[in-house]
Design brief:
Chain lengths: 229, 200
């Protein structure tokens, strides 16, 4: 059985990953829809910025977040002055770092799903009297659900595995920002920490594996089933 | 006049052009494939914008100088070549998608012979069944006119007969103006009140 300390780490990781995924979900879907359906100037730039965290070293992403959310930063300054909120050294900051790192993966999965929605069905709905809004809610969105779920699971898995951006942005505070990867790293720095590192690694692998299998099953479901006659 | 259509549209290497005036009943657009028959239906439905021209149906201008009525307000009952049923909705939900609340689906399911299909899913339907459901869905959306794109293609003889009778019922009993595309002379003869031939 995991110790109390290990439980704290696991529960914190699930909280950070869950919140990161839930908050990022609508943002990722909006971006995915925009990139899949709308041709606008600067589209390539938006796409590049969304996918940037995939290719930039996570430490850099973490540092950029630190600058943005720091007391003198363009987001952190107003947050602190107007609402008295600071995300530094807090689990909320860890969730922000995880969400930013998961965003590109989520956008990619959802975008493929939206692009796979048959436009001919949407045209048929228009001829039946449905305006663009109704077409979105009754066709585009429900038909993209498998991709949305796959993106969410993938985003969640990525979030609970986040390391570089998190440790740079909100440090490694036990009980607050010390998620699974950070705890494993900390254990490896300590003498006699190997056993706990091993147990946490096993939990981490199990969680990631479960998420990947779920994501794959959802993606497969997206592939079949919905066919136009 | 039911249909007054004067349109021109360049699609890649092909120039689609048609000028016709047609009265009540079923007007059949006849001609070889690739001549732009479906494109004409798409222009009438608003799915394709003509380069120039005028489309008036039942006295209402749908497209013309300064006028381009949005697709959803054209009241076109469009039955596509593929049924295009919504795969995540059962037959009943497909039928009522464009219908007013509380509409009685049996007004069309009876003569189309699809009463028994209401709780089925589109993927479980045969080609003929799906086609008839698509016709029913178009009719229930309270259309001002019907657009039928090869409604009998890829159906076996018995199914063709069923769908053909449905179309004749719409033409003679419901008296909805119909614009239908086909490349089959026999179909054109049987259904068409008049035949408009499109050539390259």
């Amino acid at each position: 059985m995991p110790s109390a300390e290990e439980w704290t780490v696991v529960v914190l990781s699930l909280k950070v990953g869950g919140v990161a995924m839930m908050v990022t979900l609508p943002i990722a879907f909006a971006l995915a829809w925009l990139l899949a359906r709308v041709r606008f100037p600067g589209r390539l730039l938006v796409e590049a910025i969304v996918y940037l965290p995939l290719v930039v070293p996570p430490v850099v992403t973490g540092w950029v977040l630190l600058l943005a959310f720091g007391p003198a930063g363009p987001i952190g300054g107003p947050l602190e002055r107007w609402f008295g909120i600071s995300v530094l050294f807090r689990w909320t900051g860890a969730a922000i770092a995880a969400g930013v790192m998961a965003l590109p993966l989520m956008v990619r999965a959802m975008r493929l799903s939206i692009e796979a929605v048959d436009r001919r069905l949407e045209n048929a709905a228009r001829t039946l009297g449905a305006g663009p809004g109704r077409v979105f809610w009754t066709l585009t969105l429900p038909l993209s659900v498998p991709g949305i779920l796959a993106g969410a699971v993938l985003g969640f898995a990525r979030s609970i595995g986040e390391f570089g951006a998190t440790i740079t942005f909100v440090s490694n505070v036990p009980g607050e920002t010390r998620t699974l990867p950070l705890a494993i790293y900390s254990m490896l720095q300590q003498p006699n920490g190997d056993a706990m590192a091993l147990r946490l690694s096993a939990i981490s692998v199990t969680l990631s594996l479960a998420a990947l299998v779920a994501s794959e099953l959802l993606a497969r479901r997206a592939g079949r089933g919905f066919h136009v006659l | 006049m039911s249909f007054e259509i004067t349109v021109a549209k360049r699609l890649g290497e092909i120039d689609v052009a048609l000028e016709m005036v047609a009265g009540d009943g079923a007007t059949v657009l006849f001609g070889p494939s690739g001549v732009g028959k479906t494109s004409v239906l798409n222009m009438v439905a608003g799915l394709l914008r003509p380069d120039r021209g005028r489309i008036v149906v039942g006295g209402e201008m749908l497209f013309g100088t300064g006028v381009d009525v949005p697709i959803e307000r054209r009241r076109a009952g469009y039955v596509f070549q593929e049924a295009r049923l919504f795969p995540h909705q059962c037959v009943r939900a497909n039928l009522t998608y464009g219908a007013a609340a509380g509409v009685d689906v049996t007004t069309v399911t009876g003569f189309l012979g699809i009463d028994d299909l209401l709780d089925r899913w589109p993927r479980s339907l045969s080609g003929g069944e799906a086609r008839r459901v698509a016709i029913g869905r178009a009719l229930l959306s309270d259309p001002a006119f019907l657009l039928l794109d090869e409604p009998l293609s890829s159906l076996d003889r018995a199914r063709r007969e069923e769908v053909m009778r449905g179309i004749e019922h719409i033409r003679d009993v419901l008296t909805l103006p119909i614009l239908m595309v086909t490349h089959d002379p026999e179909e054109a003869e049987r259904i068409g009140t008049r035949i408009v031939t499109m050539a390259r």
